[in-house]
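User:
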Amino acid sequence: GAMPEAPGSGNHVSQGAEDEDSSPRRSMWGLLAAGGLGAGLLAVHAVVTPFVMPALRRVCLPFVPATSAQVENVLRMLRGRKGALVDIGSGDGRIVIAAAKQGFKAVGYELNPWLVWYSRYRAWRDGVHENTKFYISDLWKVSFSHYTNVVIFGVPQMMPQLEKKLEEELQRNARVIACRFPFPCWIPDHTTGEGIDTVWAYDLKTS
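Assistant: Predicted structure:
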């Protein structure tokens, strides 16, 4: 009569061989998929990180976009003012661009190159690139002596040292506009807004 199949022979052996052949293929495709996903996440991280992480400064100064209310309050403090304007830590350029639309020759200093390039693009897109300039620079290595309007979005840790620097460099007709945090010693001549949108203006001739 017919002999029974021995364990591990016949169809059972054939199925096992197929599993062994397909297993490396599945592993290879799994590795490729994981690698592709990892590369995609890395690319997104490389593009997004410079916009949300702090630039390398002596004091950690993260990029937090100005609100529309803050921009409007800054412009309110600039009414009737003349002369060149500088935004210290200009971020994505929105203050510089808004000031240029009001007729100012406006300059932004920002250490993060991604934000500087993006600011230049926005200025070109909004048609004010001829009245704006953006520089990749550490604020502590720049002299602001030829500006009569200075805007700063700072953090408390940097304000005392920046107050001293500006007092030494600026002319007596300069106005300094601080957003989010005031200077520790100067007494503001004008204040507008509330909460995080508060803006303080200091006239150097009185401060």
